[in-house]
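Input set for joint prediction.
Command: fold jointly, output tokens.
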Amino acid sequence: MNHLDQLEAEAIYIFREVAGQFRRPVLLFSGGKDSTVLIHLAMKAFYPGKPPFPVMHIDTGHNFEEALTFRDKLVAQTGLELIVRKVADTIKAKNLTDATGKFPSRNALQSYTLLDAIDEFSFDACFGGGRRDEEKARAKERIFSIRAADGSWKPYNQRPELWNIYNGRIGSDDRAQAIAHTQNVRVFPISNWSELDVWRYIQREGIALPALYFAHTRRCIRYEGRLIAVSDYLNIDEQDELVTKKVRYRTVGDMTCTAAVESEAITIAEVIDEISASAISERGETRIDDRCSDAAMEDRKLKGYF
Amino acid sequence: MDILRLITAGNVDDGKSTLIGRLLYDTKNIKDDVLESVAKPGSGATAINLAHITDGLRAEREQGITIDVAYKYFTTPNRKYIITDAPGHFQYTKNLVTGASGVDAIIILIDAVNGITPQTRRHSQVAAFLAIKNVVVAINKMDAQSYSEAVFTAIKNDYLTIADQLGLKNITFIPISALMGDNILEESPNMRWYAGTPLMAWLEQCMPNECNFSETRFSVQCTIPQLHEGNGLGYAGKLLSGALTVGQTLSIYPTGATATVAKILHGYNAVAAANAGDNVVVYLNNEGNIGRGALLCAGEKLNISNHLDVTICWLNDQQKLQPGKYYLLRINTTEQKCRIGNISGKLNLDTLTYEPNEEPVSVNDFIRATLILDAPIAFDPFENLPENGRGILIDVETNYTSAAFTISLRSVAPL
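tokens >
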């Protein structure tokens, strides 16, 4: 088996372990490339059946139009059930303070919406597209990451995880009773994939992606060397330098904290060449939220983030 | 391109994280922004805090130690490396065991200044317990010992005694300086006396684990509901060993029934045969009542017993082993309640032998014991087929993975 076959086999094994061990799994889907690959893997893992779980979008409201269109199209094509829970509703219901400032990212607020949805549907396992090579706190996480009832990650007391034996037991033996309001498990089937592995797999399998992953013309502001798309959610002021550039996205998240990169790449092969040559990491180039502190991701994860 | 999984083990401050940082840096697998975040004033590789690249948690960076396993990735034109940086502290040995399970190769680091320490012995024991096939002992900080051949040879000879006691074979010794980059990518000009290959060249030629066991073992993970009338249930799982072919007759455990293979799906394709390691969906004629945890087998050597002779590594730092208590055993997808029966010995780290010991079994202890299962299971000794001869014990009250075990050949032929 070559490395993509091995990574695929590992991911499919993990999907089936979750189907075998949990009652109410859900796949977290953002419309980004990693969770799109997850859906592709899930379809393959359960063929000729359907994946025995719905997909859920935790909607920050700060969406790229292309990602939403793509989401709805993919859900229609696959016949998967889509659940959408909106951060805006959580803010209202819980009387939370909405994100403010120049880049009002609702990235951290997503955790509240996610935890409410886990409670609402009694989800016991959530698949996420997190990869260990993305970020240093993610590099420490198990494939089956046990979260406390409040969603928090305990990085200093993770369960031993040996070989490919994933222990997803939560609650007590009386599973039906125990599931609600107890621990939940985050599962990361593509933990061991790099950004390039994801793209080479997309190329090999012919997986469709939202158009914004390829070069297109977009109006942006230039902020500390980064290009942030002009949108209704961004607070533009007079000092901002407005530019129109040929860009593409390396990651897709909350519009206000995801930067575009200048690019001419319009095919998957060109994207792969571009990433291979890039001197900057994926999150380093595109995520504003991780730059606030050395431990931004760790802090979000401690509070229930993906 | 294939994948090689490897782990670095060594005592605190032996330079594990520095070595990984060095491998990533020298193979140009660190991006500029990541480099910038770990830079110290100055320039060049030595001015970078190479260890910071792997210490992902705030407390680790603050204390300058590795607490839990971190996974890092780098590629060469030949292969993708999944590299596990594991803690060196004694109290975190259980995390080292997590990181070392399933690797193809282990780099055991020894500080040339301090020589072999109790942790070196412990890490080597972990390598022996998990039967890691490729072992390299990297004697680090040679720069601090004037690149002395005599120092290298003395440590090598000391280590060979340990290896002999543990039954570790085919060990490679390389003198390195992770900090200065000696014998990492290039042959070191400072150690002309060393005739072997640099570390990277050794990694490039390592053979990944492969399955040599030829009998068929298929572990069922879950069922795939039928999509159309007339197709039975599909059994999704992994072919642990051997081959699976349409028309083949299989024995099913634990039911003891037999069935023939009607159809095999690999991804979206119907195939005539599957190979070891494949994740497939199997359809059977005359299937019985089977589901997750079933083992489909062909061949003569399968063992069925409710008594297993095992070596156990205790991983629970909250609770000691409680003889008589029920634990949940898991081998692949098979689960069974079990108790720990007779404990024949506990590893004495000084002598590296298993000796009778009345003390309770606590975290990081290795013991030899018998597992008494509520009902018989189908298994293979670890030596024959690792994937069907190893498992974990789960504490049913806390659900914590409390132990790892490997099944001894003595389960089959009592000595």
